[in-house]
Predict the structure.
Amino acid sequence: MEKDRRRSLGKAAIGGSFDLIDQDGKRMTSEDLLGKWVLLYFGFSHCPDICPEEMEKLVKVTDMVEKDPDLPPLLPLFITVDPERDTPAVVKAYLKEFSPKIIGLTGTQEQVHAATKAYRVYFSAGPKDGDNDYIVDHTIIMYLINPEGEFVDYFGQLKTAEQVLTGYTISVAKYNALKNNSWFKL
Ligand code: NI
């Protein structure tokens, strides 16, 4: 199990620390999330179709997790790739369309860049039209982060909420097995 863990950690140079601002304008860093399982999605509030679907999936997964007494709670986390338009107030209004449980983060261009770089998220803003509107092309992936703040799994757009739930269940079981194992060795 330990070997398995080291192998997967070696493979996964994904994830890392971030320092951002939440929808209430308060600073939130990756350290603040230690101790929690987190399902992280990068997107932007003006996204016409894909992000809304992914946000609904994010909520569906966390709701299913909540109904399963055997699973630890899962925190749905959204980080914008469009900090120019997604101010804390805009993020707050956007999250209201989905669930009050989601935490939404934004920041300066530099802060957001650092977060996307850590997760190897690609994003690129397209040209502005006459109304100053633009589309941001971006990676569509959900990242699972364990209570130690480590990236453990990812789920692409084609994964259903049920498949993400299965992935979460497996990751939690592995994590717990490893914890119990190292506890016995102490
Ligand atoms: Ni999108």
About this structure: The chain has one domain: 2-185.
